[in-house]
Amino acid sequence: MNIINTLKLKPGLNVIVLYDGVCNICNLGIQFAMKRNNALPIVYYASLQSKLGLSLTDYYNLPKDLSTSVLLKYQIPNDFLQPHNSSSSIPNEVAQLPQPELFMKSDASIELVRYLDNPWPITYYIAKIIPRSLRDKIYDRFARDRYQNFGKTESCQMPIPGNNNNS
């Protein structure tokens, strides 16, 4: 899989969320976010179980634990996606994917709300007041019990049709 072509990155800010695609509450959260992301940057979603999710976790050596949501934030330069001229030392087909800013667990969740429509971004600032260690303890407890409390599907659910996604 050519990750660069699959991601369809555009110049500027690109945000990708990796989530547990069989978790009912995770899918509800993703659908909630998708309905409220009408401004730039467009956030893309892929389940951790999808080909893209597995490729990204391998590429960046991320944990494969389904209880860990991941948000990747790429800042793509305008010339990154342009075909390289013949004098370039790196041909386009082997260009390296830029290193994203990585957010995991509670940081991924609260970073995501920054890109939702108003009034949701205010929750980012409220949540950042809470120390990460406490947020992640709450996140881990919630993640541990998510299937028991909210159930799971037999197969990965697709996000809402018509929205940009990579599941």
UniProtKB/TrEMBL annotation:
Superkingdom of origin: Eukaryota
UniProt xrefs under Pfam families: DCC1-like
InterPro entries: DCC1-like, DCC_oxidoreductase
Gene Ontology molecular-function annotations: protein-disulfide reductase activity
Protein name: 11122_t:CDS:1
Species annotation: Funneliformis mosseae
